[in-house]
Amino acid sequence: MAAPPEVTLKDLSGQWLMNKTLSDDPDRILQMQQGVGWWLRRAISLATITLTIKQYTSDDSLTHIDIEQRATGGISSTTENRTLDWQYREHKDGIFGEVKGKSRWVKLSDVEDDNEFLKTGWLDEGDEHVQAYVESAGNGWTANQIWGFEELGGTRYYVRHVVVRKGDDWKEARLVYDFQKK
User: Of 35, 54, 91, 134, whose CB has the highest number of CB atoms within 10 Å?
Assistant: First the structure.
């Protein structure tokens, strides 16, 4: 379902369902994140992935994006609590293990990554996007994401462009989400 025009990066709150038809196969990026075995990757590819997002501004004027990610098929849910201040925070993820990540509002021209995939295809809906950067504590990979909205087939969607790197190898994927409800 299309993302309504009133739903923007300034308030992503609501429920979102991964659109597997429009999304790239996440297996290619999961393969690079060691510790995610074949069985789990297969289960993820078959599961329905739902994001429940609560976005708010705290008393110190920082944007917070709290995400519960649920998958069907008995896969553990994960929680991402992001504060858009570009400060590292450690997190133990049920799928990816020990990681540290940071998030911020960013102009695409300020994204420090030579992969143009992160910076292209976006609707012009304001100055800034969300950047989420994660490093594995023990498996040597990084994941760089830019969040925004794209028009695909004439329909507006919430989208994440993801680039995962390990050493000199890298993979990219576009993850597309259908809006479900506020």
Answer: 134
